[in-house]
Amino acid sequence: MDLSPSGLSLPSPSRRSLLRGAGGAALLAGAGIPLLSACGGSGTASDPKTVSLGSNASDAVPKKAFAEIYAAYKKQSGITVDVNTKDHNTFQEQINSYLQGTPDDVFNWFAGYRMQFFAAKGLASPIDDVWAKIGDNFPDAMKKLSKGADGKYYFVPLYTYPWAIFYRKSVFQQHGYQVPTTWDQLVALCKQMKKDGLVPIAFGDKDAWPAMGTFDQINFRLNGYDFHVELMGGKASWTDAKVKAVFDHWSELLPYHQDGFMGRTWQDAAQTLVSKKAGMYLLGSFVAQQFTNKADLDDLDFFAFPEINSAYGQDTVEAPTDGFMVSKAPKNKAGVTKLLEFLGTPAAEAIYLKADSSVVAASSKADTSSYTPLQKKAYDMISGAKSLTQFMDRDSRPDFTSTVMQPGLQKFLQNPKGVDSLLSSIERQKKTIFASS
């Protein structure tokens, strides 16, 4: 759920570069943009009974779920988790300057490349001591996602969730729709839904990150997992014919996307699925958070993005993993270690999952007996995948995805015919960004 910039206009690189660098803090404050800062602030003496935590969980469901974990931890340990919650998008935009300033002891973040990026910059503390205690709770795939490039652990995973195409079972039953397993079947279904008066694919890209999920699905279905990794890592060229083929396929789907997407958040788009005005929605399973009525939630289902290239089938699943990291110089190191040891237990995951049934546990020892049918299906989809990706915004450099890819994809969505010059521009900017430290 990498939620990024807000606003109807395209985010400009100049504004984003301010957000990226620590030096932009004064400029931003002068512009009236609220800055991320720690609960205690600079120079606050350490309280052994308090750990400060920077949270991006501003949506109601995860915010409540995390609060219940921290309440349980205080009851067990006597240590208070002082939570500093910021708007999800703001947190993502300002994370770099936040970590270079006086951050909280612990902060919510993401596994994989996004974690490794800040670890390599020295903006996070290694937590091998924590993993010595919690290691047996996690499968090898989660251990790999939690390590920095130096082989040390920097991350404690809490939950994961798949990206897929969500739909209402009753809508499919009413119209006699079949779940598509190939690209041609997906396009044919979109055409039929449009004839039937439905919005075929709900879509909101006001915050600029949802489109990245569509790109990923088409890319690894068409070109495979390895090409996805090479492209996100700056090794493959954006002017490669393989990339152009992704946009050619996407152009074929665009007429079936919901209109007005630049002014719509993912939550607003989800309401179109809730109200049965849209037939499908490509998003992470957190979309279930918007289904507040039990009957509606029970009617929600999903399927894997259809096959495009038989060489890769449907063997890759996008399954972002969320959890916790420790800032470079936590004030209460002993308290931080104890908290992370607790957060790495199946018990902590069970508390979270009881309040948020839209995700599944990262631990292989978590109790899955209370999983809803949707969670069980998500768990099976993730555990059965040949390869797992973490989402474009997490599988690549954050400065590249925020300053180049988010506005770039929005330009494509508004002008699909200008893709050649767009890809040349992306490649030029990629070379510059990936050449920097």
UniProtKB/TrEMBL annotation:
Keyword Transport on entry: yes
Pfam families, sorted: SBP_bac_1 (PF01547)
Keyword hit for Transport: yes
Keyword tags: Transport
Domain of life: Bacteria
Entry's family note: Belongs to the bacterial solute-binding protein 1 family.
Protein name: Extracellular solute-binding protein
Species, as recorded: Streptomyces coacervatus
